[in-house]
Amino acid sequence: xxxxxxxxxxxxxxxxxxxxxxxxxxxxxxxxxxxxxxxxxxxxxxxxxxxxxxxxxxxxxxxxxxxxxxxxxxxxxxxxxxxxxxxxxxxxxxxxxxxxxxxxxxxxxxxxxxxxxxxxxxxxxxxxxxxxxxxxxxxxxxxxxxxxxxxxxxxxxxxxxxxxxxxxxxxxxxxxxxxxxxxxxxxxxxxxxxxxxxxxxxxxxxxxxxxxxxxxxxxxxxxxxxxxxxxxxxxxxxxxxxxxxxxxxxxxxxxxxxxxxxxxxxxxxxxxxxxxxxxxxxxxxxxxxxxxxxxxxxxxxxxxxxxxxxxxxxxxxxxxxxxxxxxxxxxxxxxxxxxxxxxxxxxxxxxxxxxxxxxxxxxxxxxxxxxxxxxxxxxxxxxxxxxxxxxxxxxxxxxxxxxxxxxxxxxxxxxxxxxxxxxxxxxxxxxxxxxxxxxxxxxxxxxxxxxxxxxxxxxxxxxxxxxx
Amino acid sequence: xxxxxxxxxxxxxxxxxxxxxxxxxxxxxxxxxxxxxxxxxxxxxxxxxxxxxxxxxxxxxxxxxxxxxxxxxxxxxxxxxxxxxxxxxxxxxxxxxxxxxxxxxxxxxxxxxxxxxxxxxxxxxxxxxxxxxxxxxxxxxxxxxxxxxxxxxxxxxxxxxxxxxxxxxxxxxxxxxxxxxxxxxxxxxxxxxxxxxxxxxxxxxxxxxxxxxxxxxxxxxxxxxxxxxxxxxxxxxxxxxxxxxxxxxxxxxxxxxxxxxxxxxxxxxxxxxxxxxxxxxxxxxxxxxxxxxxxxxxxxxxxxxxxxxxxxxxxxxxxxxxxxxxxxxxxxxxxxxxxxxxxxxxxxxxxxxxxxxxxxxxxxxxxxxxxxxxx
Lengths: 468, 375
Prior knowledge:
The complex is a heterodimer.
Chain A: E1 2-5, E2 15-21, E3 28-29, E4 34-39, E5 44-48, E6 53-58, E7 65-67, E8 71-77, H1 101-106, H2 116-122, H3 127-130, H4 155-161, H5 197-206, H6 224-231, H7 243-255, E9 260-268, H8 270-280, H9 292-306, E10 312-315, E11 320-323, E12 329-331, E13 333-335, E14 338-340, E15 343-344, H10 352-367, E16 381-385, E17 404-408, E18 412-418, E19 425-439, H11 445-460
Parallel strand pairs in A: 12-16, 16-17
Antiparallel strand pairs in A: 1-8, 2-4, 2-7, 3-6, 4-5, 6-8, 9-19, 10-11, 12-15, 13-14, 17-19, 18-19
Chain B: H1 38-63, H2 77-84, E1 92-94, H3 100-105, H4 110-118, H5 127-130, H6 141-155, E2 170-175, H7 182-194, E3 198-204, E4 207-208, E5 211-212, H8 213-216, H9 224-228, E6 232-236, H10 240-255, E7 261-266, H11 285-292, H12 296-307, H13 312-334, H14 354-368
């Protein structure tokens, strides 16, 4: 069984966030296949597999922060027998344990005895030293390679190092089938808890007794996060406001200063849905995901030409309304890291094919956190498609100083009155609700309604776009 | 300085010299031509593919935690192979830290390139016998070293002899960022004053880490040479044929004793500055895509397939050779020996002064004082 420890992907980084796993337990991987994506203080980085084999265990869940040197995945070599698995057996604890042979060989004979008796001796006596794991530069220490013993004259240090360490693997606890969070061994009951001096300092400052803290660090060490978690452990979950979430918090709070009004209309979009089906069969749309969203985007750009106030912003410094020449069209995207609204520059100059291509490019970038910085600024008008969540509509909030935002509901087959006079009847049609929220200082009710009516005209009969 | 008779080859201007365009078509140039055969071009292709494979494998090794750092050369293969294949004894090659392709041409075992980056060695390969000097990590310092070596060639009578094979020159590699360093400019001054046999080979990969070359220099870099009194040329750094032709001319000129030349190979670093860098933070995807279309390897492949000099079977064999090389690199990296403490003192002085010898003894004694220490 190979164990892959989190390397330092930059110079001198101490930790990284696990962004996403690209493999699951049971997957076969080849050398250099991408295993996961991590985010460090410097960048998003994909980590390739050093081993060929089958993923036996994923040791760290997505979204957690991991110290450099901590094991993150176990990969069973192709030539290893599958029944040698039983990975969560206590005997397996530190796979590199050099001289654990005698106790390890005893373990399989009595699998039920995941008892401390077998686990403790397997941990190298110097775990407190070697397990420190993270180097300032490079690739972590090799726990197994540090075979050197203490200096002959250095009795106190030797005594300290002999303190039994907490087992790395959660000993006899029956494992949950899904990816489990990092091994949270019970606090070491005997001896001094393992923690680096800065962590001890944090504990002292927060008044936390280290012997009550559950360690999650490598080699059963207590990390600073463990201490902080213990200090604030009141049962509720606390999510730090950072990154995308923090930005959403800020932008939404700022939007309170803007008086907003909302208008909505229910539209028969059957013709748009048919148009999409036609386009899907065209060769130039091959390989592209096309949805009514692209037509909505095009309709918004056309409607903005007639009501340019929808594509404006307020310049507080000069107390002027700025009508933007181009439409830099924001597309709200729900990403694993939160709400992002990257924009398509000069969407008004694009035809439907170009818009579709731009959306196809932008949305996966947003999901994977790889939006180029220029796409995150300079937006002038946005669209949000809440229909993908199966809701009819909402009252969206304009993005970051923009005058308006348009919201699309889910498209449903509904009974709809068509025809006139004697011919009037009810037919099943594709119907959706379109909403626009606007900054009422820049856009009045008439402008907002006219814009919405124009969008709805195009959506109900895309051919009428020729009139715009 | 005497120029070759006839037209002035150094008056070709800002447009990079090109002999093979990105679509794989041979292009005629009034002053430069590639002298080799299609078989030679195929060997350049092999060099470039293998150099790229070494580079991507080393990058992956860093991502696995086996190397502390790696500076990828992705995209610069033509500049490195094209120039590297014009070099021979007794030329001296003075690299920066990204010249993995030049190292390949100089016959350096790619495994040896990894020692410094793995932290297992300070001196990675026999630099003197191989004529390929150690990687320089301090920006631009190696330009001065190279000029000194070139002046030594002059004084050793290895320049300007009637027998061209007896002549040598130094070539020093650096990037666009290094041209802003004092060392490089001082090296230009000395090289010009002494008409030193040195070729300044600048790979302008457009970025000094994150700083665009266009912000560092108001004029194309090759034109700087004129201010120091020697000629400069700008070549398409993604065109292995043009790089070969231009470097050949510059090296021959230097070997004949006609002084230095600055070659600006106009190229693009497709990867990160080093594995610690995230280029998406300072450059646009569109720019990268535009350069990807000028890939140095693809155009050669297209050309050779069109002439029938190679076929798919040839490429498949090359791919297999690449994979084998990558595997050897992986295994070799893991097998690099742990350095012994005592070695650290040996590379500073030719003869170790007593104070240093004493310090070494003290450290070794300290090391030995640990129980079970084997060294």
